[in-house]
TrEMBL record:
Entries under SUPFAM superfamilies matching the protein: NAD(P)-linked oxidoreductase
Function: Catalyzes the initial reaction in the xylose utilization pathway by reducing D-xylose into xylitol. Xylose is a major component of hemicelluloses such as xylan. Most fungi utilize D-xylose via three enzymatic reactions, xylose reductase (XR), xylitol dehydrogenase (XDH), and xylulokinase, to form xylulose 5-phosphate, which enters pentose phosphate pathway.
Keyword S-adenosyl-L-methionine in annotation: no
A Pfam family of this chain: Aldo_ket_red
Catalytic activity reported: xylitol + NAD(+) = D-xylose + NADH + H(+); xylitol + NADP(+) = D-xylose + NADPH + H(+)
Full protein name: D-xylose reductase [NAD(P)H]
InterPro entries: AKR (IPR020471), Aldo/ket_reductase_CS (IPR018170), NAD(P)_OxRdtase_dom_sf (IPR036812), NADP_OxRdtase_dom (IPR023210)
Organism placement in taxonomy: Eukaryota, Fungi, Dikarya, Ascomycota, Pezizomycotina
Domain NADP-dependent oxidoreductase: 13-262
First-tier enzyme category under EC: oxidoreductase
Organism: Penicilliopsis zonata CBS 506.65
Length: 279
């Protein structure tokens, strides 16, 4: 497993839980079936957030019997004007308790600031609250999500262990990734297959046929070979299983270079770009 700069290990792939607790799939039995398919397929990292509705509660309920076998990650951006560490900390602790119901000493594996939209002051207060949460033993590691280079450069110590962003060949954040690599910050990738927006790309199709894998599997493998941690998600048991079957093949150096070249004309995110509007 990859190792964080704190010395703790983290699974090389995770399951994205955004959307599990909303819409037509909010029914508990459907949520349970998704988790059962993911766990049976080998996923151990579950990427949650306070913003994802009942996901923290549901993942906490479902993972309680297997807590020692899973890696729990959650995120929060609940900063309000005038907040201090003392007012933010209880909200972070509430997320931890939702993820670890019934535990005498609740503790998640990784807690992130969800987005930089809370502004420079909010980011500092949230970060200092996460540092305090870690000192209390309620999270093993702390990191950030959706942070651009300018946000990372103004974050006080300690360094985050990960930065979770949209990351795929068409959105590579080259300058920011270079900074993270130099500073021991691991990249986590949501939308690692660009939400299938480029599934018909000729280069991707050719490589997919060459290695006899789906386009999504090729993109997940691209992430892994770059040292990133992809966070695929799916509603379908067959695809859930397929998405984790990416550790028994390797892309050649030439194939990696051809995929890298797909981002030569800059970043084209399929989700919103926080660098565009966050100070």
């Amino acid at each position: 497993m990859p190792q964080l700069h704190t010395g703790n290990s983290i699974p090389a792939i995770g399951f994205g839980c955004a959307g599990w607790g909303t819409g037509p799939d909010a029914a508990e039995d459907l949520f349970d079936k998704k988790f059962e398919a993911a766990y049976a397929s080998g996923y151990r990292l579950y990427d949650c957030a306070e913003e994802y509705g009942p996901v923290e509660n549901d993942i906490g309920r479902l993972t309680t019997p297997v807590r020692e076998q899973v890696y729990l990650l959650t995120k929060c951006r609940d900063y309000r004007p005038g907040d201090t560490v003392a007012t933010v900390l209880p909200r972070l602790q509430a997320s931890v308790r939702r993820m670890c119901p019934g535990m005498e000493k609740p503790c998640v594996d990784l807690f992130l600031i969800h987005e930089p939209v809370i502004g420079p002051e909010g980011r500092v207060v949230m970060w200092e609250a996460l540092v305090e949460l870690q000192k209390l033993g309620e999270t093993k590691d702390i990191g950030v999500s959706n942070f651009g280079l300018k946000h990372l450069l103004t974050l006080p110590a300690p360094k985050p262990v990960v930065n979770q962003v949209e990351l795929h060949p068409w959105c590579q954040h080259r300058e920011m990734v270079e900074y993270c690599n130099k500073n021991g910050i691991i990249m986590q990738c949501y939308a690692p297959n660009a939400r299938n927006k480029h599934a018909d790309n000729p280069v991707l199709q050719e490589i997919s046929q060459s290695v006899n894998r789906s386009p999504t599997q090729v993109l997940l493998r691209w992430s892994i070979q770059h040292g990133y941690i992809p966070l695929p998600k799916s509603d379908h048991a067959e695809r859930i299983k397929q998405n984790i079957e990416v550790f028994d093949f390797t892309l050649s150096e030439e194939q990696m270079e051809r995929l890298d070249a797909l981002g030569a004309d800059g970043d084209h995110p399929v989700c919103k770009s926080y660098d565009d509007f966050c100070d």
